[in-house]
Specification:
This protein has about 300 residues and is of the alpha/beta class. The protein has five helices and five strands, in the order H-E-H-E-H-E-H-E-E-H. It has a five-stranded mixed β-sheet, sandwiched between helices. Strand 1, helix 2 and strand 2 form a beta-alpha-beta unit. Helix 1 packs antiparallel against helix 5 and helix 4 packs across helix 5. It is elongated and about 125 Å long. The two termini are about 40 Å apart.
């Protein structure tokens, strides 16, 4: 019985130590997610307005450009998958990888060859373990991405979209990331970055039937679009990196809170079992003392 009590106490100490770690990780994730949310809030309006401006400029030009020109027979696409460098974030990485695999399957069903680009060690290890080809990968900055990181990621993608498919280029560019909706909700989404879909644009008054302004290009529409292309791709990737980072921290906070709560419940259960074991041990000792005293009394009475 004493051995069983020692086992319970050892397990309680172990779970208590784990609880301290998960609680600390929860607090760290909570502080990081606040900073990440601020960066998302600061970058999202810029990305939206730049997308709106690029769409308006592209819509006012008849120039053929990778930003807007749909390939007559699209045969190759690039998919950029954003994951994290670290785990302990629940289903965060699994959901993003699943969304990327579904997108890849859809593109391949359309007869397109898919080149996969990955950000984050979790995504890289997933594809490497399954021996799937990776066109390029980046790691080490997913917790706190900077605009310089976004430019590094965007560079080979911009180069690929500007090349002919026969020379290793792509006709389409897609991105899969986790959108930060709220502290409790993060959704894995996929979006096509290029060619840009020329959607109806609302003016500043918010009226959908507002006439779009006419643009005069200097020196030419192609040169303007060439200048806008890297800015557009970089800003969209940067915003997606920030959204993914905020989502990861929120998922980590939620996962660590759940782990801390589970540790507390387990400690309560083990403490109750330890108390029961100690009570059983005391009861057994009392029984042995009473039994010994009774035997001694009987022996003494018999000798008399």
């Amino acid at each position: 019985m004493g051995a069983q009590l020692r086992v319970y106490k050892r397990r309680i100490r172990s779970v208590t130590a784990t609880k301290k770690i998960t609680k600390a990780m929860e607090m760290i994730a909570a502080s990081r997610v606040v900073k990440a949310m601020r960066k998302v809030s600061a970058s999202t309006p810029y990305a939206q307005e730049l997308t709106r401006a690029v769409t308006a400029v592209a819509g006012g030009s008849d120039a053929k450009h990778p930003l807007t020109t749909e390939a007559e027979n699209s045969t190759r696409a690039a998919v950029l998958l954003l994951t994290s460098d670290r785990g302990l974030a629940g289903a965060f990485n699994a959901n993003a990888i699943k969304a990327a695999e579904q997108l890849t399957a859809r593109l391949e069903s359309e007869g397109k060859q898919v080149d996969t680009y990955i950000v984050g060690r979790r995504g890289v290890s997933h594809y490497t373990f399954r021996e799937r080809k990776i066109a390029d990968s980046w790691t080490g900055f997913t917790d706190e991405p900077s605009y310089a990181d976004a430019k590094t990621v965007a560079a080979p993608l911009i180069e690929a979209i500007q090349k002919d498919t026969a020379a290793g280029g792509v006709d389409e560019l897609h991105i899969v990331y986790t959108e930060f909706v709220s502290m409790m909700t993060q959704t894995a989404v996929d979006s096509r970055l290029l060619p840009l879909r020329l959607e109806e644009i609302e003016g500043r008054t918010g009226k959908k039937d507002e006439v779009l302004p006419l643009y005069e290009f200097e020196p030419s529409a192609e040169d303007v679009l060439d200048a806008l292309l890297p800015r557009y791709v970089e800003s969209r990737i940067y915003n997606a990196l920030l959204q993914s980072a905020a989502s990861k921290h929120a998922a980590t906070r939620r996962a660590m809170k759940s782990a801390t709560d589970n540790a507390s419940e387990l400690i309560e259960t083990l403490t109750r079992l330890a108390n029961q074991a100690r009570q059983a041990e005391i009861t057994q000792e009392i029984s042995e003392i009473v039994g010994g005293a009774s035997a001694l009394a009987d022996a003494t009475a018999g000798s008399d």
